[in-house]
Each structure stands twice: as structure tokens, then as C-alpha cells.
Amino acid sequence: MTPSSRMWKLAISVFRRRVLSTRMVIMLPILVLFIPGMAWGFSDPNIQLPADQVPETAAETMFLASIGIVFAGTMAAVLLAHDGISKDRQSGVLELRLSQPMPRWRQSMILVIGNWASIALPVTVLMLISMWLVGYRSDMWISASDSIVFVLAAWLVLLWYTIFALLASSLAKEQGSAIAFSIGLWFLFTLLWVLFTTLIAALNGVAVGESKDASYSVFEGRLDLLSPNGVYHHLLETRLNDVNRGVSPTGAVLAALAWTLLPLLWFTRRIKRLVP
Amino acid sequence: MADRDVMKFSSVKFRHKVPAPKWFNPFKKAHGAGIAEIDLTLQRGQIVGLVGTNGAGKTTLLRMMSGVLPIESGYVSANGTILSSLELRGRVGFMPEHVRWSGHESVEQTLVEFALLRGCSKESALEILTVIGLKNRASSPLDSLSQGMRQRLSLGIALLGTPDVLVLDEPFNGMDPVAIDAFKRLLQSLARKGIAIVISSHHLFELDQLIDTLALLHRGQLVAHGTTDSIQEKLGFEQLTEVCLDSELPKKLMHGLEILEHSSTDINHHMILQSVRKNLLKDIVKSGIGVITWREIQPSLIELLCAATGLDRQTIGMDVESSAWIPMRKLQEEEE
After folding, report:
1. With an 8 Å Cβ cutoff, are A101 and B119 in contact?
2. Among A93, A99, A102, beta carbon nearest to B94
3. Of B86, B90, B154, the CB nearest to A96
4. pLDDT 10s per residue in chain A (276 long)?
5. Most buried of the four, A60, A260, B58, B135, by CB within 10 Å?
6. What is the ipTM of this complex?
7. Which residue of B has its CA nearest to A89?
8. Sheet holding B73-78, edge to edge
9. What is the dihedral of CA A6, A11, A14, A20, to 10 degrees?
10. What's the pTM?
11. A33, A35, A240: which is closest to A121 by C-alpha?
């Protein structure tokens, strides 16, 4: 068996362990409620949204429903991966793993792939159900290219949060700190980011609160490149019409690449130098 | 390198990083305790006992030997070739001190997973189950294992891929006497197969019976290394003999004897002798005195450690009997 195939087999075993865990059983109803639930709600033909917005295409409805992935999907990714290293460190299994003759970068990839796949699979299934629900309820069917971009973008945002959680898990000496780190980061990007953006915008003299103000939109769009949720939305916006938030599709893809590679390199380096 | 040599550690060194926060850099780290430059050669079939007090650096040294901790300076070689960390990990099987196996996975699944990490076949992992005596618990979940079984599983993982060197950190912890006996016999059979074993333990009595080479570690330094006899000789230990006879030793036989201890009852006479002359036992038997016990007394590992470091038991930290600092509680006094 080649080293790569061994790596994939081990990643599958991490995936299997996570996907069949009690945690997943608890989180699945939440994911169902947030992902297809949001799609169901936003595809209501009589929906009343703020600022008289009406989704005109299936992609727009899926864009609105992506808030379910931002809230529940990323949270589930964090909760699944937060003890990826700290639990093994506490039990002594980490010491045993690190003493095995498999390169540490491969061991880090096993953790990333296994943990990420365990949340990516249910989210993908629920997204496909959501796309069908949107089509069924509003009679607007999402195109194949849009659905691929939406699924890929969701995979990426889940990957980023999985890596953050694993990084936190490798930095923390015990599980309490690991979860505090991970949830703290999730809280910052998911809930506090709006406050942060508004504050920075106000300090820069941008007209905050005027939703139709173009300069605020552009400012917010650029600042969103520093947030994984923001980059996720930029990727989704590449499939929407009449959206200009100052970031080109290439810029969004480059930002996504940076958000993928930099934490991944940091995590691999961390595992290479990890002391149990 | 001699033919029997399986691995050589040359001037290997590691220092732990400890937090040393400053007001301008709260995450600053400084060099803490660790392992000073240590030279150690392991031979095929050799069982090396690593002894030292708490904090002497035993676990750090074992982690370095197994490639878990990096070697900051110095090198490890085998057959004249310097080994990388990855190659070192491939040749060493490591059993850490505490592995609290838990979860729904079975013993077999765990072994197979580690076999994949080690790059050996599933079949070899299943064979290990027989070696460690867990074949009939192969499908048991990890949560259901006793402490002794968990230790055996850790040993099984260390044995995967038939390593040249087996590094065991406190393997007897949590084992009952029967399990310890079985474990020791297993280690002896592995040593006979040519595997070099390095073992640290606080169960000095168990270690004493098992090892053929001793390494005394103190404050990160190897203060003595060799067979127990050679270390005794080097440290100037005199040979002591415990003798128990059914009657008093006649004066002519006592000539030139140095008696360190002497106690008598109606039925026996007990003595501890230093530097016994060659034919003493023969002479005693010839004189018609019944010999109940004739035994050479080996210095304990603690005594060796004290002699090697020049410190007494209390300073070295082995003596924890003193309770003078605990205030006496007054008796027959009602608590408020």
C-alpha cells in the first residue's frame, strides 16, 4: 500500500468516526432546521423581506439561504473538529501517533480531510435537498453551474472553519481551551464581524446605516475579504446579477485561495513542531 | 560500531521550552529542563533499565529516543548511518506512560489503524493480538478494557512492524502482579529475539529482576551506565553477604571478617558480612554448622542512584517518609 493510499484510508477512518458520533446525531436536526429549513422559508412565494427584496432567481434564494451554512454548518464544523488534537493529547494517544513513522504533514492532512469530510458530506446532502426544495416551491430551478459553485463555496467555508478548530485544538493544552478558542473565532466572524465592519467604516467616515450607500457597500465588501464568511459570500455573489461590492470574481477566488492555503500551511507547520 | 550494536545516540540534547512572560512579550519562552548531551549505545537483545527520580528526564529521553521530541543537537545512528527523525520512528516502537484508550472503536480497529500509520499490514496487526493476549477481546470496544488490557494494547502498538528498539515508559503502571509477571516474560522473550528494550519504571524491584543494563539519570544527565556489577564496582560498592546459621560462628572462622550487622535468636544467628573470603562457606560447612541462608546482597537501585549522584535519599527525592512538616492534630478536641 502506498503512503498516499494509507493516508486516505486513515482519513476515511477519522471521517467514519466523526460522522457516526453522538455529536453528529445531536447536530443533524440543527443542520436540517438551518439549511433546508432556510431554503424552505426563503422560497416561499409570499415572502416579505426587509428593504422590499424579492429573490428573483433560484441562485438568489440559495444565496439568502446560505445564512444557514454560515450559522449552523460552520458551527457544526467547529464542534466536530475542536477536539481533533486536544482529546488525543489528553489521553496520551497523540504521543503514540506522533511516534509513528508517517510524516507529520500526512498526519495533519488526515485530520483535516477526515474532519472536513464529516461535515461536508451532510451539508452537501442538505444543500442538494435545499436546491430541490427551492425549485419545488418557487418553480425556479438552479442551474448546474450555480449549484456547483454554491456547493464548492460551502465546502471551502467548512474547510476553513475545520482548520481553525484543529489549529485551536493543537494550540490548546486541554479541550476546554480548544472549544473556547474555536467558538470564539466562530463568534468573531459570524456575529461580531458586522459590528467590526461598521466600526471601521464609521472611523473612516463612511455613511454607515445607509443601506443603499455605494461607498459603504464597497468598504464592507473589501473588509469582508478578511473574514471567511465574507469571502464565502463573495464567492456566492459571483453567481448573482447586479451585485457590486468592489471585489472582482478573481479577487474573491484569490482570497479563497489565501484563506485555504495560509491556515493549512500554518496547521501543517504546527503539527510538524507539535510537542505532546 | 560493533555487530551487536543496534542504535547509537551520540551527544543527543533537548531542552523544554517553558513560559517566561515579560510585560512586553507575554508569550516569551525560555529554555527549561531537558536532556544534556547524552551518549548511549543499545545492543541487540539488551534490556536497559532507565532509573531516575521524578523530573530526572526519563520521559523526555524516551520521547527523544522514539522521535516524538526533536533532537536539538547530536545524532542517532544505526549501522553507521545517521538516522532522520522519520527513520528513527520507523525503527523504534514506543509505549508511552499513560494512554487512556477510550471510545467505541474495537481493539482490532485500533491496531489496524496504527498498522496503517506504521505502514505494516493488517495481518501483522492481527498477529500482534495473540502476542499481547488480547485475541479474545479483539472486538471489544476500547471503553470496556481494564487498565492492564489498555497497557497491553499500547505495547501491541509499540510492537507493530517489528521494531529494532522497544521504548517503554513506566509499562507496569496499573498492572496487577500476574499481569506484570506475564509482561516481564513477554519482554524477556522479545529480548531473546534480538529486540533492544529500554524501560523506565518506578517499580524498582520489578526492574531489578528484568534488566541486564542500567542507566541512571539525574537532572537530565546520564550519571552511570553499564551492567549492575560494573556500576557497583565503579561506584565502589563492597560485596555484602547475608548469612544465617543455626549456631554461633566459632572465633577462628570469624578471624578477618567484617561483620556489619549481627542478631541472634535461640534458633538462628543472622549476620551481614562485607568482603567475604573465598572458602568461608566451605569452612563453615566443614565445621558442622548448619547454613540456613547464604545470599549476596545487591545494592538497591536507589542506593546506586544516591552513590552515583553523591546525594542522600532525602535530597534526591526518593525519601518521602518524612512528615515532620505536617502539623499534629490535637486529639479529643471538638472541631468548631
Report:
1. yes
2. A99
3. B154
4. 899 999 999 999 999 999 999 999 999 999 999 999 999 999 988 887 776 677 888 999 999 999 999 999 999 999 999 999 999 999 999 999 999 999 999 999 999 999 999 999 999 999 999 999 999 998 889 999 999 999 999 999 999 999 999 999 999 878 888 889 889 988 888 888 877 777 777 777 766 666 667 777 788 888 889 999 999 999 999 888 777 778 889 999 999 999 999 999 999 999 999 988
5. B58
6. 0.86
7. B99
8. B29-43, B5-19, B73-78, B81-82
9. -110
10. 0.85
11. A35
* Segments making up each domain of chain B, as ranges: 41-70+94-233, 240-297
Q: What range defines the domain where residue A171 resides?
A: 7-272
* C-alpha torsion sign, points A244, A250, A253, A255: negative
Residue entry with cell 480548544:
A178
Q: Which of A91, A103, A273 sits opposite B99 (nearest CB)?
A: A91
Q: Which residues contact B61 (CB under 8 A, 6 or more apart)?
A: B35, B38, B50, B217
CATH for B41-70+94-233, options being 3.10.20.30, 2.60.40.1880, 3.40.50.300, 3.30.2270.10: 3.40.50.300
A107 contacts in chain B (CB < 8 Å):
117
Q: Of the candidates A159, A127, A154, A160, which has an alpha carbon nearest to the alpha carbon of residue A236? A: A154
Q: For residues B138 and B131, is the Cβ–Cβ distance under 8 A?
A: no
- Number of residues written out for chain A: 276
Task: List, for residues B118-147, the tens digit of each pLDDT value.
Answer: 999 989 999 999 988 889 999 999 999 988
What is the tally of structural domains in chain A? 1
The CA-atom distances, in angstroms, between A163 and each of A88, A262, B22, B45, B46 are: 17, 10, 30, 44, 44
How is residue A194 written as a grid cell?
458586522
